[in-house]
Each structure stands twice: as structure tokens, then as C-alpha cells.
Write a structure and sequence with these properties.
Length: about 625
């Protein structure tokens, strides 16, 4: 039931295309020729060696002999073969030649002479059937062995060639991405245009004695388009593009990662000028530390080989190493020194104009209704990255299709924003008492957020369950992008977070467990004000935290006590408690002074379940907001 603000909630590798180097083993022509030869031998044996030959029991052979139907026989060591007489009454479909297993029969010769049957003896010289009998299985097993040997020695996971690079190689005409397909990262785009110019015209720089950076590191939050930018550089420069991830180097075998690094750079130099792009570099280039428990020797060997290769190859050959990561704080310092990843380009989340440009790119293939204003959508999606906006357009299209609409309307976009920020709507029935508690709670958030100055305006209040355990939510959307927060802003946010719990106290005389998330977030903000931002007069402008936090990931770091004494720890706890108590008092004063408004908003919310911000401001007597689009 906590007040929520929009924020980050959140490209691929192309498949093989014509002209692209094969990534895995493919059946060779010789294998197919071998299989065709085996089939031919089988057909020869079936239709020429054993054609029109039937197998008879020995007793039936003796009967045919007594009836005078046997023309001639050949007596071998293990079998008796012969030819039957063809008479007018004989079935034309019946076989002419026969064979039967020889048994010990001393009177056979006498019976043959009595019937006038021509007979001959035969030694074991039937070389063709016998030869085929053991050659065919031998050739078959040789073919199977050769096939599996090629599979084992293939480039994709084969145990005989596991040291080869796993990079996917795209030819210069296969990368279709251009800078026109990238939006919202104008500063990063300008930085990378110099790389494109060098790849197109290297003499422009080398004639003056200049040296292009060997490596370019793209850093930024997830989903901002780092991989897309790297592909756009290759597409603009019309050079081959090597693409792989940092995790593809390290295997269970010692030395494999280093061998793959060497093979990668050998392939890159052979195809220069080109771009080598390593995604998720932090999987490979984590900082080397000496731990009592030991370290990952294979990963460190791979990193050492990468450092050596980047330091040793000639940048004038036109091989540009590009990498992307959202965790630059964990990279080894040796990777970031000049001569390796010389240039670090920040690919940050877009501002409102960048979000509008990204939305227009993704909306090209979507049928849009006339009421859709992408400027308003961009203004309501502060904190969204490029991938979030692409997902937003897709979700809006899916919602429109679910409603059997012919185009995507503004309501579809609003519903998609609610779904991405607050979660999936749940159709569960709550008791009357719980609905009332949730309504008071969300009304408290909304009233405090509307009364205090300088806060983001309330966009929507809902007591419909969404997401993971959220019984309701109050959504605040900023009118403009903000990059700094003052102490007054943080204190106001604390009052808003505690406004729901305070409304329960005032209206119901009791509190519920619904404020658990609000209390956690409020405590985190208050602790950061004291230990990180130096916003406590009692403790001064000192950072007591000392933890290295992730810059681009919303990762909850383990709470470790900083390097301070017990007395300082007690002062920190006291300051956190004081700040939260003052915020609680602020929320209580506001809601007590607007007690009638609290009842009005709550009863209205119980009736309609979802209230827009404009209706809330009318109930509170607050003037309407300025146009979001015109204020930008």
C-alpha cells in the first residue's frame, strides 16, 4: 500500500545469416557420399545378389525333388542351392531359384541321379556376399565414428576445439542497425561517431600522429541500448562485427578462456578493420582480489590474457574493442587504464525528449489511434529506459488486441503504464473492513502528497490489488526530470510514506501491517540522510556508510556497519528516529487539519476504487495542474 514512483522495472543475438561464418559443425559432403555408397551396396546385395531367390525348408526341397520339379542343384558346405523347373502350371510369381540349409543326407546324391537332376559341388568361394557382409557394417561404423568425431571437434562446444572463440561474426553488410535507429542517448552517440570516422578514414588521424582509443567501454543501467549502440557503430562504419558475452570465455577446463581470447584476437586481426563487442564485461573482468578462501584462477587467467592482448595489438590495424557493463564498480582497474579501455561512455536513461523519440521509433509498426499523444506518454514514464519503453508500446498493443480494438488508444497506454509500474491487476474479493483500511491508507498518502509543496503530483489512487502483495497504491508522476533531491524534498517524501499509517491511526484508532513497506523505505531514506548525505546537524557532513554501492543497479547491499564506534552508532540511531518522528508528526498535523477531506476522499475511493489525480485535487480544493506537455 506504499506510495510508489515510476522507476526502472526492468538487445539479442542474431541468428546465422547468409555470408556469416558457421557457428557449429555441419555435415560435410564426404559424409553424405559415404551414406549414399552404403545405400548403393545394400541395394546391390538385395536386388542383384539375392534377387528372385527363395528359402525352402529341407523337407519341402525333398518333396519338390521327388515330384521332379528340381532342374539342377549346387551342393555347398552349408547350403544347397538350385533352380526349379518352369512348367505351364507353375505360378509365374513363384521364385525360380531357391536355397535350403544342408543336412546330413547320404541318399541325396542317389535321389538326384534317380530324378536326372544335374548337380555340382561348390567350395567356399562366394566372395562377394561374404565381402559385403562384413564391409557394410565396417563402413557403417566408420561413418558413424567420423560423424561424431566431427561433432566433437566442432566449434560449438566440441571437446576437441573448446579453445576456439565463440564469437558470432556478422559481415559488414549484415549489420542493419544505424544511428537513426537509436534515440535518447545523444551524448553517447556523439562520442561514438568519432569511432565510426576512424574506421572509415583512419589516415585522417594517423597522419597527424594521433591514436584512436583501443577500447570503448559503454556503461549504464540495464535496457538503455548499449548493445544497440555498438551494433549501430558497426553498421555505420560497414565493418565486420564480432559479438559475444563475457561468460562465454570461462569454462570448467583450465586455460580455455585464455585460449579463446587469443583465438578471438587472431580472428579480429585477420578481418580488420572490425569491431569486437564483449557484452556483460563484468562476468569476465571482475576485480582480482586475494581471498583466504582462494580465487577463481581460470577467470583470472582469462582476464590476464585479455589485458595482455589489448596491450599488445596495434590499434592502427583498425580493431576496436567495445564492451558494455552495468556494474563498472566491480571491474579490475587494469582494464580501465589508458591503453586498454581508454574511453568510457555513459549510456544513461533518457530524458523526456529522449523518451518521446524512443517511443516514436517503437511505435512505427503499431496502429495508433488519433487520441494518442506520445509527449504525454513520455512525460508519464520518468525513469523508464529504452527497453522499458519498447515493452510499454508492446503491452499497449497487446491490451488493445485483447479488447478487439482496431488501433491502440491512449487508454491502452495508460493501462500499460499502470501494469508496468504497479503490477498485474488482481481480481480478488476483500472484506469490507480491509477495503476500508486500504482506502484510508491510500487517501492518507494522497492528501499529504497533495498538500506538501514541491512534491510530484498525484496521478492516480487505487485500492485494487496489483503486483506482489500490493493491496493498493498511490502513483505520483513527476512533471519534469529531476537529478537532485534537497533535504526538504526527502523530508516531504518521508511524510508521504508515513501518511498512510498516520491516516489509519487518526481514522480507525489502530494500525495494520500494510505499512510494512512504507516503514522500510522511510527508514532507508532516513538512514541514507544521516550516514551518506550528511544531512544531520548532530553528526555533521560525514559519510559513515563506507559501502561501495552499485551505481546502475537497484541492488540491496548487505548492511555492514561502517568504521565508527558504538557511541556514534547510537547517535546515528537516535538521528534516524528523530527524523522519522518529525515526519510522522508532519503527516499527523496535515491529516488532522484535513480530517473532513480524509473522509471525503476515502468514501469516494470506496465507491469507484480508482481515482484520478484531477478528481482528487477537486475534492481537496487544489487548483488544476499545468499542462504536462507545455511545462516541458
Amino acid at each position: 500500500m506504499a506510495a510508489s514512483k515510476p522507476g526502472p522495472r526492468f538487445n539479442k543475438r542474431g541468428r546465422d545469416r547468409p555470408g556469416q561464418r558457421p557457428i557449429g559443425p555441419r555435415p560435410s559432403a564426404s559424409l553424405w557420399y559415404g551414406l549414399a555408397f552404403l545405400l548403393l551396396l545394400f541395394l546391390v546385395q538385395m536386388y542383384y545378389v539375392t534377387s528372385n531367390v527363395g528359402s525352402l525348408p529341407y523337407s519341402e526341397f525333398k518333396t519338390l525333388l521327388k515330384n521332379g520339379q528340381v532342374a539342377e542343384v549346387t551342393i555347398a558346405d552349408q547350403a544347397v542351392r538350385g533352380t526349379l523347373k518352369q512348367t505351364a502350371s507353375t505360378d509365374q510369381k513363384q521364385f525360380k531359384q531357391f536355397t535350403t540349409t544342408r543336412v546330413e543326407d547320404p541318399k541325396l546324391i542317389e535321389e538326384l541321379e534317380a530324378q536326372g537332376v544335374k548337380y555340382t559341388g561348390e567350395t567356399a568361394n562366394r566372395w562377394l556376399p561374404d565381402l559385403l557382409g562384413w564391409i557394410i557394417p565396417l563402413v557403417f561404423f566408420i561413418g558413424i565414428w567420423g560423424f561424431f568425431f566431427r561433432r566433437m571437434s566442432g566449434a560449438e562446444g566440441g571437446v576437441m576445439s573448446f579453445a576456439r572463440s565463440r564469437a558470432k561474426i556478422y559481415a559488414d553488410d549484415e549489420v542493419k542497425v544505424r544511428f537513426a535507429d537509436v534515440a535518447g542517448v545523444d551524448e553517447a552517440e556523439d562520442e561514438l561517431k568519432e569511432i565510426v570516422e576512424f574506421l572509415k578514414n583512419p589516415k585522417k588521424y594517423t597522419n597527424l600522429g594521433g591514436r584512436i582509443p583501443k577500447g570503448v567501454l559503454l556503461v549504464g543501467p540495464p535496457g538503455t541500448g548499449k548493445t544497440l549502440l555498438a551494433r549501430a557503430v558497426a553498421g555505420e562504419a560497414h565493418v565486420p562485427f564480432f559479438s559475444l558475452t563475457g561468460s562465454e570465455f570461462v569454462e570448467m577446463f583450465v586455460g580455455v578462456g585464455a585460449a579463446r581470447i587469443r583465438d578471438l584476437f587472431q580472428q579480429a586481426e585477420a578481418k580488420a578493420p572490425c569491431i569486437v563487442f564483449i557484452d556483460e564485461l563484468d562476468a569476465l573482468g571482475k576485480m582480482r582480489v586475494q581471498s583466504p578462501l582462494g580465487s577463481h584462477e581460470e577467470r583470472e587467467q582469462t582476464l590476464n590474457q585479455l589485458l595482455a592482448e589489448m596491450d599488445g595489438f596495434d590499434a592502427r590495424k583498425g580493431v576496436i574493442i567495445m564492451a558494455a557493463t552495468n556494474r563498472p564498480e566491480v571491474l579490475d582497474p587494469a582494464l580501465l587504464r589508458p591503453g586498454r579501455f581508454d574511453r568510457q561512455v555513459l549510456v544513461d536513461k533518457p530524458d523526456v525528449k529522449g523518451r518521446e523519440a524512443i517511443l516514436r521509433i517503437h511505435a512505427k509498426g503499431v496502429k495508433m489511434a488519433a487520441d494518442v499523444d506520445l509527449k504525454i506518454v513520455a512525460a508519464r514514464t520518468a525513469g523508464f529506459a529504452g527497453a522499458d519503453l519498447a515493452n510499454l508500446v508492446n503491452e499497449a498493443a497487446l491490451l488493445a488486441a485483447r479488447g478487439d480494438k482496431t488501433s491502440v488508444g491512449m487508454k491502452d497506454f495508460e493501462s500499460a503504464i499502470d501494469r508496468l509500474i504497479a503490477g498485474l491487476e488482481k481480481k480478488r474479493v476483500m472484506s469490507t473492513k480491509e477495503r476500508e483500511i486500504v482506502a484510508y491508507h491510500e487517501s492518507g498518502h494522497a492528501i499529504v502528497a497533495s498538500v506538501l509543496p514541491g512534491l510530484d503530483p498525484v496521478h492516480k489512487i487505487s485500492i485494487v490489488q496489483r503486483g506482489f502483495g500490493a493491496l493498493g497504491y498511490t502513483m505520483q508522476l513527476p512533471l519534469e526530470d529531476r537529478y537532485l533531491m534537497t533535504r526538504g524534498d526527502l523530508l516531504s517524501q518521508l511524510a508521504v510514506l508515513l501518511g498512510g499509517r498516520t491516516a489509519e491511526e487518526i481514522a480507525l484508532g489502530d494500525i495494520s501491517t500494510g505499512a510494512q513497506n512504507d516503514l522500510q523505505r522511510a527508514t532507508d531514506i532516513a538512514r541514507a540522510m544521516v550516514t551518506e548525505f550528511g544531512m544531520s546537524d548532530a553528526l555533521g557532513a560525514i559519510n559513515y556508510d563506507g559501502n561501495k554501492r552499485a551505481r546502475f543497479l537497484d541492488i540491496v547491499m548487505p548492511q555492514e556497519r561502517g568504521l565508527y564506534g558504538e557511541e556514534t552508532a547510537q547517535k546515528i540511531d537516535a538521528e534516524i528516529k528523530r527524523i522519522l518522528t518529525e515526519a510522522h508528526d508532519t503527516a499527523r498535523d496535515i491529516l488532522s487539519g484535513h480530517r473532513d477531506k480524509l473522509e471525503t476522499v476515502t468514501r469516494r475511493l470506496l465507491d469507484i476504487e480508482v481515482m484520478e489525480g484531477e478528481e482528487l485535487r477537486k475534492l481537496l480544493g487544489v487548483g488544476p495542474l499545468k499542462s504536462v506537455v507545455s511545462s516541458q
